Amino acid sequence: MAKGKDKPADDRTIENRKARFDYEILETLEAGIALRGSEVKSVRQGHVSLAEGWVRPQGSPPQLLLYGVNIGEYGPGGPLGSMGQHKPTRTRTLLAHKREIAKLARQVAEKGLTIVPLKMYFKNGYAKVLIGLARGKTQHDKRDSIAKREAKRDIDRAMSRKR
C-alpha cells in the first residue's frame, strides 16, 4: 500500500518559561488533553497562557485536572456563550495512564510538591501537555539562576566577538 503524504509539522509550541524560573522541575510527563473544537483551533493559533496554570490529581480513580490555563476564544466560533464557543479558563482533563497518575498523586501528597504545565504542543495531530513535578524555588535559588544566566550570556557575547 502506498503511503500518503506526511502532514506538515505544526511547530506551534506554547511554553511556560515562568514555571522553570519559579520551580525546580524534578520529573516530567507528557499527557494528552481533552479539548473542545473551538479550543483546538485557538491552541493551533497560539492563544494560550500557561503561566497561571496548575495540575491537581483528584478522584478515587485518580485523574489529572488542569486548572487556570487560559485558552482564548476562537473568533469565528461566534460570541461568548454561543454553542460554538468555550469558556476560556474552564477545568480540563489530562489523559495519562492510571499508573502514572497514581504515582504523581502519591508524590504530591507525601512530599508537598506540585504539578505545573510546562509546554503545550501538537504531536501527530493530538494536543499534548508536558507537565512537571516541581518543588518551589526560594528567593536565593532564583538569584542563583539569574546569575548563571547572565554569566552564560556574557561568555557567549565574548566568544562571538572573538570570531
Question: How does this model look, in words?
Answer:
The protein has a single domain (14-137), classed as Small Protein B, Chain: A (Beta Barrel). The chain is 33% helix and 32% strand. It has helices at residues 17-22, 37-45, 98-111, 139-162, and strands at residues 14-15, 23-33, 48-49, 54-58, 63-67, 70-71, 92-95, 114-123, 126-136. A hairpin with a 2-residue loop joins strand 8 (114-123) and strand 9 (126-136). It is globular and about 60 Å long. The model has no long low-confidence stretch (mean pLDDT 84).
Helix content: 25-40%
| Alpha-beta classification | alpha+beta
Q: What is the terminal separation in angstroms? A: 52 Å
CATH fold call: Small Protein B, Chain: A
* Low-confidence blocks of residues: none
Shape: globular
List SSEs in N-to-C order. Answer: EHEHEEEEEHEEH
The helix tally amounts to 4
CATH-scheme architecture: Beta Barrel
Q: What's the CATH first level?
A: Mainly Beta
Main β-sheet, spatial strand arrangement: 1-8-9-2-7-5-4
Annotation, overall tally of beta strands: 9
CATH superfamily: Small protein B
The overall number of domains is 1
Strand coverage percent: 25-35%
